[in-house]
Amino acid sequence: MALCTGLEHRASGINSLYKRLTNSLVNNPNAVIALFGVYFLIQIAVRLLLPPALRIDEAQQVLFAQWLALGYDAQPPLYNWYQQAIFAIFGTSVLGLAVAKNLILFLVFATYVKLSDLVLREKSLVLVASLAFFVSPQLFWQAQRDLTHTTMLMLTSLWAIYLSVRLLKTPTTMGYVLTGVAVGLGMLSKYNFVLILPAILLAVWLHPKGRERIFDWRILLTIGISLLVFLPHSIWLFDNLQFASDVTLRRMAEEAPESRWMQILTGIAHVFSGSAIVMILPALVLIASRAKRTDTKAGEQQVSPWLRFFLHYFIALAAVLLVVIIATTMTEVRDRWLLPLVMPFPILAALWLEQRSFDPAVFVKKVLPVCLVVIAILPVALIVSVPVQAMLGKTSRSNNDWQVFRQHIQEKGISPSLIVTSDWYTGGNLRFVFPDTTVATTTYDDFDPAFALSSDHPVLFVWVTGRDQSAGMVDWLQAQMGVTLNDISVNTFGAPMYFPVEGKMQRFSYALITPDNVVKSSKQP
């Protein structure tokens, strides 16, 4: 009897706590921000529990952290600069990577909540829009496991939209200044910010207060500051435009049909399908939240100017994408590229629900518990994903054990003065496990590391594919040193993965370059 009474009291306490939590989330947007703050703190811990192998975007950050530049590759450098600042505080570590990623994602959601709160009268819909945004697979899964520049673009784009809405409501000099900073940072985060900017401008222009704000003299502050923020990178971009654009243009034209009309239709189809993939789960959350209200008055049916604002944003965005597809015959459009563009969709839908059919009680009863359960189980799913894949006989980059290669090299008494590889994924992981050794790749010619070749400290070539990639590294090193190399021997090393996969091994190939491999030299190394 006492046991039953204790269980009833415990259940009653949990139920009371849940009611207080839901009531706070429904009525207080700051509580929603706090919820996501706790979630992303947990995600930092989750990353520390996962194998230390770096995924491809993480590896790029570690590799690029070796030098500071105005530009690096096909992406603008804002996230690289930001990551280097985080590394300066936490060291080049998994913790530094996790803090950088999850801080950005938290700021994305904090800004999203604040933007929703700014345009929605019904505070419970702020929670609906934020949760609908969260359940996009590219956000709750892909962004947690990878994506860097895209998350920075999401943040700067949201800042630009939020500050534009603030200016429409209350024009201040500081508001114009901050909008200029946000636009400049947007251009430094990812080049497809240029697709978002016209959509924001048209939405502002068509707002009842929009023309008044645009023709305010303080708009010159916005333009001037945005150009000033982007100026340092624009200098690099002017000299490296072909290098920065080639990769993106090739990706945009992958598997393109020969007919121009088919290229255009393919591009349009990929935009629609990619947008659907991003928005399908958010749409389900919003549809499930829909309920007929009995207290709606006729006067409340007037269309909100903010509903029109976001409608105009999406209309302009569709027009911009159509122009780009026609002009460039872009055929390859990936869903993660579309995520920053279409992320205001839940706010648009919430504005529509606010005026037509939303009952907070139905949402709290039917939808909120499911969303909270999803939030609770996602960290667990991330933790078990790698060992479960290994049990199923599948390999993944997250399961590679790079430390075992370092141990192999140290056991052989090799102390390299420089490590050379052909790609940033391998280079970043090698830099991570050889923190005191410079790592160069044949991909980035602007990084010319200083090193001294000797018998005690050779140059180490490393690659992890089955195909021999030493030829490109030989060419790179010969150009760096002004020498000719010969008699290079390739070694292989096989090791189990972090979570062993039956019948599969990691394969490392490497070659040592010593003074004995140098045939002639036209300059002193």
In short:
With 525 residues, the protein is α/β, with parallel strands linked by helices. Helices cover 65% and strands 6% of the residues.
Mind explaining what this structure looks like?
The chain is an alpha/beta fold. The chain is built from 22 helices and seven strands. The chain has helices spanning 2-27, 29-49, 56-64, 78-90, 94-119, 124-134, 137-145, 149-169, 173-189, 193-205, 210-214, 219-239, 241-252, 260-288, 305-328, 335-342, 345-356, 360-366, 368-391, 403-411, 424-433, 470-481, and strands at residues 418-421, 438-441, 459-463, 483-485, 490-495, 506-513, 518-521. The protein has a five-stranded mixed β-sheet with strand order 2-1-3-6-5, sandwiched between helices. Strand 1 (418-421), helix 21 and strand 2 form a beta-alpha-beta unit. The radius of gyration is 27 Å and the shape is globular.
Q: H/E element string? A: HHHHHHHHHHHHHHHHHHHHEHEEHEEEE
Main beta sheet, described? 5 strands, mixed
**For the largest beta sheet, what order do the strands appear in spatially?**
2-1-3-6-5
**Number of DSSP helical runs:** 22
Report mean pLDDT, rounded to a whole number.
88
Unreliable residue stretches: none
Describe how the helices and strands are arranged.
Blueprint: H1 2-27, H2 29-49, H3 56-64, H4 78-90, H5 94-119, H6 124-134, H7 137-145, H8 149-169, H9 173-189, H10 193-205, H11 210-214, H12 219-239, H13 241-252, H14 260-288, H15 305-328, H16 335-342, H17 345-356, H18 360-366, H19 368-391, H20 403-411, E1 418-421, H21 424-433, E2 438-441, E3 459-463, H22 470-481, E4 483-485, E5 490-495, E6 506-513, E7 518-521
Parallel strand pairs: 1-2, 1-3
Antiparallel strand pairs: 3-6, 4-7, 5-6
